[in-house]
Write a structure and sequence with these properties.
Length: 220
């Protein structure tokens, strides 16, 4: 209850998106498409201003809302040569993301990859060396550990890795047996993911209670 009050207070200080980005956000919410929450959006933008990444990888495009938040932020920073690679499996969401990216004339700065993220990431590695400056993970929660291990091979010292939804609306705090049976696999894998990133010697990590929980890691 107390956390809910804090979150409501923080949100009261956030601003709505503007223009087409606001329309995309509203459409996603009305269609029950999971997108980053308002305070997560603001935190993401702040990190981009701090790190000024040129090469960005997003695992989990959905309809392209977070992709476009990042693209608009990097444009506003003044990074003309930045590029975002984003991966999505769901074909309907891919088509909507393509439409949204086109509406905002961002095709030059964004490349969409279709398919399972693990397979796409493995394909990227096979095509040669790719070093991303910033990686945003927001896809199938049960696969976070698999994504992370592949991301190490696409990163460099100083790469920032931001993971969304790591507290799962508080479910991850509960005992395995207090979680709905259908959610236990995700619960257990998310707990393992959090343990892994907090104890991996290759990373410096903080777990934050921003929105639905975010993990902020830097590759050493």
């Amino acid at each position: 209850m107390e956390y809910s009050r804090i979150r409501d207070f923080i949100i009261s200080y956030t601003s709505d998106d503007e223009g087409l980005l606001a329309d995309i956000c509203k459409e996603a919410i009305s269609s029950d498409v999971p997108i980053i929450r308002r305070e997560a959006r603001d935190f993401l933008k702040t990190l981009l201003y701090m790190n000024r990444p040129v090469r960005v990888l997003e695992i989990g495009t959905a309809v392209g809302y977070s992709t476009l938040v990042m693209a608009c932020t990097l444009r506003d920073i003044g990074l003309e040569e930045y590029h975002i690679d984003t991966i999505e499996l769901d074909e309907d969401r891919i088509k909507q993301a393509e439409k949204n990216i086109g509406m905002m004339n961002m095709e030059r700065w964004i490349t969409q990859y279709r398919g399972d993220a693990v397979e796409v990431l493995e394909g990227m590695m096979s095509q040669g060396e790719v070093n991303y400056d910033f990686i945003f993970i927001d896809a199938a929660k049960a696969q976070y550990s698999a994504y992370l291990e592949l991301c190490f091979k696409l990163a460099h010292p100083g790469t920032v890795i931001l993971t969304d939804n790591v507290l799962a609306d508080g479910d991850v705090l509960e005992s395995h047996f207090l979680v709905e049976k259908r959610d236990r696999t995700i619960h257990d894998r998310m707990r393992q993911y959090l343990f892994d990133i907090m104890n991996d010697e290759r990373l410096e990590t903080s777990i934050l209670s921003v929105a639905d929980g975010m993990a902020l890691s830097v590759v050493k």
